[in-house]
## 1
Amino acid sequence: MKKCIFISGGVCSSLGKGIAASSLGALLECRGLAVCMIKCDPYINVDAGTMSPYQHGEVYVTDDGAETDLDLGNYARFTHSPLSHANSITTGQVYASVIGKERRGDYLGRCVQVIPHITDEIKERILAPLKEDTDIVIVEIGGTVGDIESIPFFEAARQLIHDFGRHNALSVHLTLVPEVAGKELKTKPTQHSVKMMQELGIQPDILICRAPIMLDSDTRRKIANFTNVDVEAVFTSYNVDSTIYALPLIFYEQKLDQIVLKKLCVESRHADLLSWKTVNERFNARKGSVTVGVIGKYMELRDSYQSVFEALFHAGLEVGVDVDLLRINSTSLEEQKPEALLEQVDGILIPGGFGQRGIEGMIIAAAWAREHAIPYFGICLGMHIMVIEWARHILGWNDANSTEFNTNTTHPVISLLEEQVNIENYGGTMRLGRSESIATEKTHIAHAYKTAHIFERHRHRYEFSNQYQHIMKESGLICSAFTPDGALVEAIELPHNPWAVGVQFHPEFKSKPMSAAPLFRDFIAAIKNNTQEKAIPFAP
Ligand code: GLN
């Protein structure tokens, strides 16, 4: 019998519901169970693809090319849950599907309503990604209880908990226990939040209280008394000053997974925590630090490049250094001398992005990396910038550009496929999801992956313009990976630099705390080597 866990949140957003759900999934996997993680997003957008990173943070891309909520990235980093378009459910998708059925006449003239038609559609979609071997499905409901738009999701959860039965389904509710004047922890917001759950017909079985410190037993008992939750099922997610990857162990120490299994009537089994312990040991064993300047457009919001930042952190764990991030808004490089900001960095990373703003600042940063021979990593847009910079400053084509930013450029070194000649078999729309690239021998990229066959995910429209391939290569630029048919350039590298690689795909999506994405690992290793070499005093 499959088991089902719903994770909801109360009081306010940003309590770390995604990380808590992921940590629980990780712990259940440590006990040998196969989990399937699902995110329900109550917004009306069909997917996150069209949302501004300012509004919603990073768009996480799955192998099958779904543009999803960033929490799927957390699921991918913490668990082995299969993740595809089916693991991300939005109100937009649900309504689009129900309205489509209504138009086709599938409802045979009946009045189509939120209950049962919308809720049935949600229930079907929650059950759809479950595989034969799935033991436990963990469904995170986005937003907070009480939000108008999340009501159908809570109603679907209530019905599914009933359908699965008391011993096969659980409600885990995450709430805030704030500290108010004089270090007193306040339980009232939690009481209210659970009451709202109860009004919707869901009695939480487990509470995870987000608090600055570990809750004492009196506070836990008080919360338990007011909420009908067993005291042993009141847990604390306290502020962690080390890493979010400490959370699975913190929950394990509090016996969260044991209580979950007990309530779900799953026999207790050995927990193999080795990989999480190793991650935390590596964290503590790091020596020294390197500073990476990440130059992008949406820097005010950490979430906008979440997978990139996580992958840099994973690389630091693997290489054994603390990776300090200097997050630089590229427009600021257009307004002041680059030295002020770039002199402090040991390496430069330019991540993905869309639109014209800040592009010139990124080109300044890429020129800085090339001229100062410091490691450079360009991802998607960051690769485009590398090509434009080379074309302008090495080939002397002053107005070289991507047609994304200037359609009238005399040297469109990056362009849409339909603008290129002799390219067949590639559609004019976004290249999305997993595809193969073949690495050229004896390149940084081949070294990183230790194989010529690379499988990574794409999300872009513009490409390296093939008409310039020959002249770029002649001038020294290295094309280091191609699509299997050889038609498109997938990666480039700079000569005369310890490590400067630009890739058309997004390796950050597959990085994990226990196995950093190979290119991120080698980028940080190159920075470490480079800074150590620089530190060796010059001996005449
Ligand atoms: N804007 C560029 C494109 O559409 C790059 C996209 C990206 O960086 N993900 O091709």
Note: The domain at 286-531 is CATH 3.40.50.880 (Rossmann fold).
## 2
Amino acid sequence: MKTTVIAVDGFASTGKSTLSKRLAKALDFTYMDTGYMYRAVSYFALTTDLIQGDVIQEQALEVALSETSFSWSTAAGPKQMLFNGKAYGDELRTLAISSWVSRIAQLGFVREHLVNQQRILSQLGSVVMDGRDIGTVVFPNADFKFFLIADPKVRAQRRFDELQAKGEEVLFEEILKNVVDRDHQDSTRAISPLRKAEEAVEIDTTLFSVEEVFEQMMSVVKA
Ligand code: DC
């Protein structure tokens, strides 16, 4: 059976996950959040003392990572991704994790492990995947590719509102710095840097509502 891959790449907080979830629901595809995977590995490293002070214990992390796995939950409803059998939520979206994740995502062995897992996890059917390197590295032959951009201040405001709503005490300036730093680290790293695949449809979400961007994406997929 022919399955379809929709790749949604772009900068932090451009609306990738909200839009990818909407697309997956409308098309009855599985939604795969690959940022969740990099965040889960960062959380794992932080909570198992594989990050000490400002240093990532790379060799120990590589060994530990080879004994971890991602899987899909078998519970009813939208598929949930598990890391070592557990579903993670808001604990992966704190500023502390966001501050480490781009450094973790630069490590070659982390990327190799996760790209491998992403290809395995996508074998169960059609998928909408969001990330930074889906259309360029993970699935260069994806059926549809989108690349989302937006003004950094608007993106930081979205993240700020999201964290405040969850009760996390944060400063807007801190969030803006994190967004700008991650843009820089994600797009200048040596391995699989964030960049637009040539044939990807670029959408600037700064001035559009979720609904409007969703309609634009659906019209590309339906055409
Ligand atoms: O989408 P997100 O903000 O949750 O992603 C968190 C970080 O993970 C992001 O700053 C870079 C990294 N990432 C990556 O390098 N490749 C991906 N496919 C997805 C995320």
Note: Strands lie at 5-10, 30-33, 51-52, 55-56, 70-72, 81-83, 86-87, 127-131, 144-149, 201-204.
## 3
Amino acid sequence: MTGTTIIDGRAIAREVEADLATKTSALLERAVRPCLAVVLVGEDPASRVYVRHKTRAAERIGVEARDHALSGDVSTERVLQEVRALNDDPAVNGILVQLPLPPQVDENRVLLAIAPHKDVDGFHPDNLGRLVIGEPRFVACTPRGCMHLIRSVCPEISGKRALVVGRSTIVGKPMALLLTQADATVIVAHSKTQDLAAEVGRADIVVAAVGRPKMIRGEWLRAGAVVIDVGINRGDDGKLIGDVDFDAALGRAGAITPVPGGVGPMTIACLMSNVVEAAHRRLDRG
Ligand code: GUN
């Protein structure tokens, strides 16, 4: 049995960022600086960390990141007001509202209010719907990053059996659509799936996005499977743990992403890619 390839998400993200830095330099020569507005509501520590990672990535590639911090007790109307102002601001190419929002804020109303051509998260129904009909505009960053990571070790996805564990709107569903578009045979497993171990055992590609530490056991995997772990769970010792039992998967999987250092950096690189694309689209629209 050959060893398991550990997919280095940080290294692949750096390659994507280097390419984006070249694109932003070209845009700057045309007097355009791509601009991302990040709306952060409240003080959620994990959200603050994510936003800081996004801001730093923006700095590295020459994208302007504007922080719009709102206090944790704001109303839905106040968040909508902020989003509408950003929709109307011609200097802003992309808008990201960091999730989760506090319970009193209606998340769906906020996401619906983002202008689809600035929705760099790809969460607006207009962008999700375009993905469904095979004419994507902005694709959600995590699934897009996962496709990149899969292709890095498995260039021929066509005909493969892919299992997506989790059916969220921001990861599982768009992930299944992207894999379908790449001609994989796709199964979506979720909390009501009867025999998850058997489904995992049949899959050439497994994408785990459930948010439960080590839920996917190493011995369930088909030998040689490509395993993409979207889970970011915090253990009792404060360390990050994926949805897959990484140590048990080593030696059995053909390739696997680590947590941290796998999907996370690629999500951010894909966000930056969407912002640069938004700036290009605006130039092309004139
Ligand atoms: N919270 C966790 N992941 C994400 C993401 O990809 N985008 C936004 N906006 N919020 C998140």
Note: DSSP finds ten helices and eleven strands in the chain.
## 4
Amino acid sequence: MRVIAIDGPAGAGKSTIARALAARLGLQYLDTGAMYRGVTFAALRGDVPLDDTEAVADLSRRVMLEVGDTGVFVDGVDATAAIRTAEVTGAVSKVAANSGVRTEMRARQQQWAAERGGGVIEGRDIGSVVFPDAELKLYLTASPRVRAERRVAEAGGDVEEIERAIAARDHYDSTRADSPLTEAAGSTLVDTTGLSVEEVLQHIVRLLEH
Ligand code: DC
């Protein structure tokens, strides 16, 4: 099984790089953040209180999630755009801190990779917890301002406000008890500030050759 794990904070360029790297290596790509967003969408839609950890964990075990090139489907409903709304983005850290949800998502991610002989998988705990034996573990980061600017370029908004929101989410994701965002042992730090997508890709391809 060939797994490339890409972790890092919001806006570091993980999705862009992971998708391009997967295409270059002939592997499939999995956005695990979209899975946590999908569970959050399902909980909000079903009026499941996010503070009810058992009910949310239960929901995560029942929900049908399809995360792929054609979009994100939650129980058959196209949620590709809905999982990126401010409502879901504001609530997802709470769902991602739920241990029952994490246990279920990890099992699904491991099954996804096993069925495909691996893949390029991005998230927060991929190299540290889900695939500690990945062939290559990358920790992508960039300055907070650049990360906010990338998000604004994608989805609009005010840079300072987005920078504050990203900082708050990173803090929450990095300080939760269960598999917090952290640089995994054996991971390579790649600071994408000031680098083009192609420069980052070339750097990663060189790392794979060693
Ligand atoms: O990458 P993203 O912004 O779509 O991630 C959404 C949220 O899910 C984010 O708050 C961190 C969390 N997440 C996580 O805890 N573990 C992962 N493997 C992926 C995402």
Note: The radius of gyration is 16 Å.
